[in-house]
Amino acid sequence: MDEKTSSLTDLRSAILFITILPAGKNVAYSPMGMIRFFPVVGLIIGALLVLFDLVVSQLWASPVAALLDLIFLVAVTGAFHLDGLGDTADGIFSHRSRERALEIMKDSRTGMMGLVAVVCGLAVKLAGIWSVKTNGTPVQIILLLLIVPAYSRASMIIGIKALKYGRKGEGTGREHFRRPLGLRDFSYCLIPLFFSLFLGVKGLVLNTVFFIGTALILFFYKKKLNCITGDMLGAMNEVLEAVLFLVVGAALVL
Hints:
With 254 residues, the chain is an all-alpha fold. The chain has one domain. 70% of the residues lie in helices and 0% in strands. It has ten helices and no strands.
C-alpha cells in the first residue's frame, strides 16, 4: 500500500471513528494512523456546519439557528463525545479512588454529575454559537464555525501525547496509545491554525484560549487521575469546543 492510499485509509478510518458520516465500505481500522487526521475531520464537520448554518439562518432568527447548529454538532458525531463527557464527569467527580473512578466511567448508565455536565456543556456551547452569530461579521462567523471543531479535535492529539492511557484492560482509546506520537502526528493541526490568521486579533484570542484551556484540562486530569482515557479525550473535545465558541464570541464584541 502506497503512502497516498494509506493516508486515505487513515482519513476514512478517522471519519468513521468520530462521526456518523459515510466514508465507504470495508475501511480498515487504523487507530494510530487516524490520529493525525482528527483536525481534518473537525474541518469536515465545520464545513458541513457552515453549510447547514447558511441554510437555517435564512429560515430562522439567530437564536433558533444557533440551537439547530448545536443539534447538528451533536447529531453528526452521534453524541460520541457527549457520552465521554458524561462518563468522565461521573467518574472524576465521584470522589472515589482512581481505580473506582475509571470503573464508573465504563458504566453505560449516566449519573447525576454526568447529566449536569452534559446539560451545562450544551448550554455553554449554545451560548457561544449564538454569540458568534450575533457579534461576528459574515466572514468571522464562517471561519469560526469552520475551525473551532477542528481545534477541539486537535486537542485530543495533545491529550494522547501528554498523558498515559489509564485502563489496564481494553478501552475505547487504548489502541491510540500503542506508540509515542511524533511531529508528523500534529502536522494537520497547522490547517486550522492557518485559517485563524485571517481572524487577526480574534485569532490570537482563539489560539491563546485553546492552548491555555488544553493545558488546564490536562493538568486537571493529571492531578485527579494521572492518566487519560477515551472518555476523557471526548470530554476534553466537548469542553474546549464550548469554551472556544463562548470566549471568541465575547471577543468579537471588543
